[in-house]
Description:
Elements: E1 2-7, H1 24-33, E2 38-42, H2 46-59, E3 65-68, H3 87-96, H4 98-118, E4 123-124, H5 149-163, E5 169-175, E6 191-192, H6 196-203, H7 205-212, E7 217-220, E8 224-225, H8 238-248, E9 254-256, H9 263-266, H10 271-281, E10 286-287, H11 292-305, H12 310-327, H13 343-356, E11 358-359, E12 373-379, H14 393-400, E13 403-409, E14 422-429, H15 442-452, E15 457-464, H16 466-474, E16 483-486, H17 491-502
Parallel strand pairs: 1-2, 1-10, 2-3, 3-4, 4-5, 5-7, 6-8, 7-9, 12-13, 12-14, 14-15, 15-16
Antiparallel strand pairs: 11-16
Amino acid sequence: MIIVRASGFLFDHERRYPTWEASNDKLFSWLNTLNIGGVILLGGSAAEITLRTRQLQKLSRVPLFIAADIEEGVGQRFSGATEFPPPMALGEIAKYDLETAIELTYNMGKIIGKEALSIGINWVLAPIVDINNNPNNPVINIRSFGETPEIVSQLAKAFIEGTKNYPILTTAKHFPGHGNTDNDSHIELPIINSDSKRLNNLELVPFREVINAKVDSIMSAHILINAWDKKNPATLSKKILTEQLRKNLNFEGLIITDALIMGGISKYFSPEEIAIKAIKAGANILLMPNNLNNTIETINDAVESGELEIEAIDQSLDKIWKAKNKIYNYRHDIDSVYTLSDQNTQKVVTNIIHKSIRTSSKLPLKTIVKNKKRNLIVVDNLLSISFLTQQSPGITIPKSLGYDLQIVESINLQNVLDDNRLTLLQIFMRGNPFRANAGLCDKSKASCLKLFSTSLPQGLIVYGSPYVLDWFIKINVTQNLPWIFSYGQTIESQEVACRKLFDLFDENSAQTSRFSDDIFV
């Protein structure tokens, strides 16, 4: 009933998060002695994960769940595999071509299922079915398929149908809906004050649809829903997990908690309380509890004392074995790693990028050869920009046209305003766990306003959150400016965006997109 966090790297010294990821000695001991249910992996290359998953399965006395948060493709977490644009890119396509969006999402799910299994991952912690109906949501944001229950439902179902080509588990998250929050449950406990009617008519709609589509599991959210339970977050609430999810929505699959080390729950309850209350609420699997040995002892003592009914444990065990029977008829071939991210897969990725991109009617950007120019790139954190290297198109393409590189954190943007060079502004900004906000802070906005009060800005590319672009449109600085918006931040997204901005596509490589911005204003 417990899944622990483990590093995808084979060697201890490469662990990125040693506070959460046990050393190999400790992890191997757990596998040999504690009969844990599975691991969730992060880090390492796809090839390394192939070795890692075989290693862990061999050491365990029972077949393991091996899970990963791969909402945007296996390559999102494990280098070498396919990485897709965020789900909201598909929601963007769905606004004007739902049929194509459904087909692309189906193919995305199919590719993720195939690639995950090929490296030994058998549980995809996706799709997200939260409706991002709050633009200031810092943690869901573009991880959601969209802002309406219709689009989110249709695309989430298509994703699940795509994965059904392979014996792999899927997870709808985060029940009963994390889309209408303005803080991050990794850090604090979000509170939702919507009434029951709104919850049933909006937030629960995609969950009903994916339950009908036979999603294997549903992940609980660490959020407080006052209409249903004023005391307990959803993860610890019997009124929500049992009454709403099990009884009202008739869900029969696995209920898994979100990570129990997250601040939205760990700041308010002890590890012992969390373990017991989650099981009482109806959770079948505890994800990443704080202090594994203590959690197991606490559950054992609670059963022996009668605080926890043994029937609850038996019911969870039954659901766990049904899920494991689905996935363990499959044995992955270690050589299958060589099939990752092939030409056909990349065509799907490129298609999503092209069809979801938003562009100004003022394209292309005509460069002035003799003038000094700079490529001003704005990021959240200089220490976490895996999408940028010296060879990234967002750097190399402008450089080939005479733009000198300058990279700055958004909070320090004001420090680079005293510059008389013509400026291409590229902003990489999106919602993500632990980020605490979803866009430019007030200080960064003030700096942007100051920059755009001059005649220096030549063009703008925003990668990530559409709400950042919406702010630029709202303040009327884009009206006569060539601009591009791309949901993705990867090298593929950068290549498409920069080539479109400078009109560097030849006739053979050109692909169509919507070249009018008036419908977005």
